[in-house]
Design brief:
- This protein is of the alpha/beta class.
- It has one domain (1-135, 146-273): Rossmann fold, CATH 3.40.50.150.
- The protein is built from ten helices and seven strands.
- Strands 3-2-1-4-5-7-6 form a seven-stranded mixed β-sheet, sandwiched between helices.
- α2 (59-70) crosses α6, α2 crosses α7 (148-160) and α3 crosses α6.
Amino acid sequence: MSEKTKTSPFLKWAGGKRKLTVFMNFPEKIGTYYEPFLGGGAVLFHFKPESAFISDKNRELVNTYHVLKYAIDPLIDELKKQHATKEYYYKLRNLDRCLESFELLSEIERAARFIYLNKMCFNGLYRVNKKNHFNVPFGDKKEFLVDEDNLKSVSDYLGSSVIEIFSGDFEEALDYPDDDDFVYLDPPYVPLSTSSFTGYTNTGFTLDDHYRLKTTCDSMNHRGVRFLLSNSDTPFTRALYRDYDIAVVKAARNINSNGGGRGCVNELLITNY
């Protein structure tokens, strides 16, 4: 792991793992680090591996990482043009309602929109409906702040290390690791209730996807690939991964539409090493 300037996630992400990193014991030596459910990148930016293959199914999220890596100065310039008003927020949010117009936006404009909506929306959620329209309401914030220092730190890390960024399904991304590599898996969690949030993409993440992920973990295990997976503490999760080492940790839940629903909950860290 590299020793570089402190870098923090540039997004607020439901299920972000910043506080969970204190419980994580990564192997001391690894070849390439793989993270196929990237999200806000809290684990990536905490450990800062020198070689990594990072990916996510959310195309707009992956585009934002690409722009941060390759076009940080134009991105910051574009972010400084944004306005902290309700009217402007909904104007920007509604751009994805017309696909033809949305596709005319540059990669930099889309990345700035992504970061702006994340900072200005209600409770920092990222959620889309089945039409893939971002649908989180305005968060009544009075100003939009551009953290230039941290954005440049993120850009420096992504650019100075061997970081490949990919958009696609986790199964495709996890065909590549071998026994020198290490994989961290942070899928949308098995729901604690039927109202649990799974709207990171318009296709969601179903129990069938969790079974498919388990099959992928078994394949990696047979190839000697080390992995760590975090998930909710449910009977389903425990039964699904009963053949692996399971540790229970207390983790903070920071994003919930009901303030009373925030606090510490049990989470599972599942490993094969």
